[in-house]
Design goal:
This protein has helices at about 5, 10-25, 35-45, 55-70, 80-110, 120-130, 135-140, 145-165, 170-185, 195-205, 215-230, 235-255, 260-270, 275-280, 300-305, 320-335, 345-370, 375-395. By secondary structure, the chain is mainly α. Helix 2 packs antiparallel against helix 5 (about 80-110) and helix 3 crosses helix 4. The chain is globular, with a radius of gyration of 22 Å.
Length: about 400
């Protein structure tokens, strides 16, 4: 019997992907939009170096889409290149929506094994709410990094769900190692890919009967934290001291026969090596026409990854009243789902509250009651990428 008959949710997932991608392609930008789109299209075509932090994996994957759907000859400009790189966003955004369906369906099925088709229906509804929300849809049809980042966040969350099912077995550690490798690779799309890890960490930490020892989890997490600190304006000397101490503890642990942190650190580093593309291209002769910051040595490459051209963020000195910032954020969130359009006034607000917002609150309550700690993966992901990021980015009231 074919696998899709025994597992009909796979056929539904394919349908969600096809529907979403079809709508995105029908509304796809034919050339370039504003903001960074022109730069990303150009650097994908010539394998150049865009603005900090460089997004090398985006450029490389964009080049693949350019070769297949655009123009393989980098010496010749091509209108088809813009469409090809825009299509890349649509493709990965549709994949992100598909994995969100699988994630919602998987969580619902585990919360209530007797839910029947309700789990599939809930998965489709939740996935399509995301697919056709205003900002997600806008980013899905233009050359931007966010669709590819959303795909990485959704994929890693779904893989975590798979780990949870097999956490008692030794092979579950291999799934965690894959997640760690993809975290390193995902930095090449956008550093925001790392923001999925706190939810994963809390799930693994609070899960009973896991095969991974607590010390190895904490040690690997410390290594990821050191990397994250290294991308900020933390003193280099402090980073070196922390890194040396980390390597020493990992080495001792490996000598004791516990190799998880060693393997995880190696895989994470291998994922990060995609950034060497910028070093190679910046030092090429002739250098690419777009070569932002010219990272042709390790020190400059590190400055690109650390985004040193931007002023440092200080979340402790508010650039606008905190109440204003949260009101602005939640107004923006609710407007993603105005089914009737903002011109309908209070009817638009009612349609939003009765739609995804109500279902989200219902899902949170149901998940906490019946599926703790698994519910922490989407819940913590929301707070990290929503409220906490809002605090950290510290927008002014003139933006």
């Amino acid at each position: 019997m074919p696998d899709w008959i025994r597992r009909p949710h796979l056929l539904i997932a394919a349908g969600v992907f096809a529907l979403t991608l079809s709508v995105y392609v029908a509304t796809l930008g034919p050339t370039t939009d504003f903001w960074d789109c022109g730069e990303f299209i150009t650097t994908s075509h010539i394998v150049g170096v865009p603005h900090q932090p460089g997004t090398p994996l985006y450029v490389l994957v964009g080049r693949v889409f350019d070769v297949i759907f655009g123009n393989a000859d980098i010496t010749q400009p091509a209108m088809r290149t813009a469409w090809a790189v825009n299509f890349m966003s649509a493709f990965f955004s549709a994949l992100a929506v598909t994995f969100v369906f699988l994630l919602i369906r998987g969580i619902a099925r585990r919360a209530d094994p007797d839910a029947g088709w309700l789990a599939e229906v809930g998965g489709v509804v939740g996935a399509l709410f995301l697919a056709f929300s205003e900002t997600f849809w806008n980013n899905a049809i233009e050359a931007e990094v966010y669709g590819l980042t959303a795909f990485m966040l959704a994929l890693l969350s779904w893989l975590t769900l798979r780990w949870y099912d097999h956490r008692e077995h030794a092979g579950s550690n291999n799934l965690l190692l894959m997640i760690i490798y993809l975290l390193g690779l995902g930095v090449g799309f956008h550093l925001g890919s790392m923001l999925v890890y706190p939810g994963i960490f809390l799930l693994v930490l609070l899960s009973a009967r896991r095969h991974l020892p607590l010390f190895d989890l904490l040690l690997m997490s410390a290594g990821l934290a050191i990397f994250l600190f290294s991308t900020m304006r933390v003193d280099n000397g402090t980073i070196v001291v922390l890194l040396v101490a980390y390597v020493a503890v990992v080495a001792v642990r490996a000598i004791q026969g516990r190799h998880f942190a060693l393997l995880g650190s190696a895989l994470f580093f291998v994922g990060l090596t995609v950034h060497l593309m910028m070093l190679i291209r910046a030092g090429a002769s002739p250098e690419p026409v777009v070569n932002q910051t010219d990272p042709d040595n390790f020190a400059t490459l590190l400055s690109v990854i650390r985004r040193e051209q931007y002023p440092p963020l200080n979340p402790f000195e508010r650039q606008a009243p905190l109440g204003w910032q949260f009101k602005y954020y939640y107004d923006f969130l609710f407007k993603q789902f105005y089914f009737l359009g903002s011109g309908f006034g209070w009817l638009s607000v009612v349609s939003t509250v009765l739609g995804p917002i109500f279902l989200a609150l219902l899902g949170i309550i149901h998940g906490i009651r019946r599926l703790f700690p698994l519910v922490l993966v989407p819940l913590v992901n929301y707070f990290i990428n929503g409220d906490i990021l809002n605090l950290y980015l510290n927008f002014t009231d003139s933006e």
